[in-house]
Sequence to fold (135 residues):
Amino acid sequence: MSTSRAVRAAAIGGFWSAVLVPAVYRLLDGTWPGTSGRAVVFKSLADIALLGTFGNAASMGLRGTSSTDVCAAMPGVLVNEMRVWLPYNLFAFSLIPAHIRPTTTVLLTFGWSTYISHTAHNSHDSDQGLKGHTT
Fold:
């Protein structure tokens, strides 16, 4: 990975963790306050609808992935989104106090940003005929 790509990936991950994800979670908590089953499910699914689709696609695109490769990668990304974020969100919105949730979420977001960066990197490599080559 080139230095400029690494810096860009770090900046995107930092923005996601420090600005975007907390803002979306505040919006979700404000739209569906509380920890009732209905509120938790709606918040969890809305997060996946917003960040899982548009957010992940934008994140990969900002990392230099072509729109064709983003579209090709998104079904797998969405499956993994459901595997990782749906259980976390159901747990977080129901049991983790709102004042602690940003800390736990940023930890998961760090790992998720690494996954998205890896996915974008592999897509970028396949554009250059380097499919299967990872560094």
